[in-house]
């Protein structure tokens, strides 16, 4: 018995023996940007009543923590556009050191200069900022509306607040492939890690994925004509889908997330919960279980929630099967990354 009152909860172990210790929790499908690889220009957002309330988000997060989840990443859509979001960080921050080891977020950075200090005070140590270009015009084209300077100010505010910042960059064949070395130099000169991501076929964005997609091994080859890249083999560093290198000349770390050219599903330790409470056991598959129904329709929500988690874990698939297709072909998966939570 935990605490002498509640029965100890079984850890979340799937049919392949993998233990889930990492939750990505989406708090909204809305965003102030419309990145061309993520959303359509005219997105239909969900009615607010469909979203998990703050209490429900906390209940879900707490159920995962009770079952062995040690790290939670808050995501979206853009998590910082949700009005009551700081209250969620405050509440979950109190669970740090009590089952939860790390609370973090992925953000586009546009609102970071406003929130960085508060996030740090909630116990957040690290943030991932998604940024695909340092050129104001290219940034505006990729995001279909963004102001680069707000993001750069946000990054500086986060660093000043004492947060560790990692820059996530989706490699795009025409929009940024040539300027990736400059971005790496910029990130490393500020002491930030950077991770490159291959564009994934999630949702119809009105753009041709084949026009966007560039395999990361190609980028790595280009980087190696200029710098010395040494693979970091440390297992802890390489937990999750990123594979890291150190660049001798910049001294910084660079990650590669290559769901298309190489997948690392065998060691997958994560699940995703959408802002409507659906748990997706794999980013690249459509199977899901409805946790909101368990919370809202049951007389014993805690029991129903744990039963739903058991059902979900049992169905976690072995791996994804992404493939890049032309515009007009159905995307591999109909749901957008902004709905699942990246
Ligand atoms: N709005 C926040 C942000 O941009 O960081 C959080 C949500 S966003 C969906 C999370 C991450 O997913 C971002 O790093 C974004 O670049 C990435 N992403 C979105 N759509 C993607 C796609 N189709 N393929 C690869 N990465 C994608
Ligand atoms: Fe918004 Fe993030 Fe998707 Fe860009 S990647 S549209 S910032 S949710």
Structure overview:
With 342 residues, the protein is α/β, with parallel strands linked by helices. The protein has one domain: TIM Barrel (Alpha-Beta Barrel). Helices cover 30% and strands 17% of the residues. A twelve-stranded mixed β-sheet has the order 7-8-9-6-5-4-3-2-1-10-11-12. α1 packs parallel to α2 and α9 packs antiparallel against α10. The longest helix has 14 residues. The two termini are 35 Å apart. The N terminus is likely disordered. Bound molecules: S-adenosylmethionine and iron/sulfur cluster. The site of iron/sulfur cluster has 12 residues, from loops.
Indicate the mean pLDDT. Answer: 90
Assembly category: single chain
According to CATH, the fold-level topology is: TIM Barrel
The total domain count is 1
Count of individual helical segments? 11
Strand order of the largest sheet: 7-8-9-6-5-4-3-2-1-10-11-12
Which CATH class?
Alpha Beta
Named at the architecture level, the CATH assignment is Alpha-Beta Barrel
Number of strands: 12
Bound molecules: S-adenosylmethionine, iron/sulfur cluster
Poorly predicted residue ranges: 1-7
Shape: globular
SSE pattern: EHEHEHEHHEHEHHEEEEEEHHH
Strand content: 15-25%
Q: For the record, what is the CATH homologous superfamily label? A: Aldolase class I
End-to-end Cα distance: 35 Å
| Helix percent band | 25-40%
**How would you sum up the major sheet?**
12 strands, mixed
Which structural class do the helices and strands define? alpha/beta
Rg estimate, integer Å: 20 Å
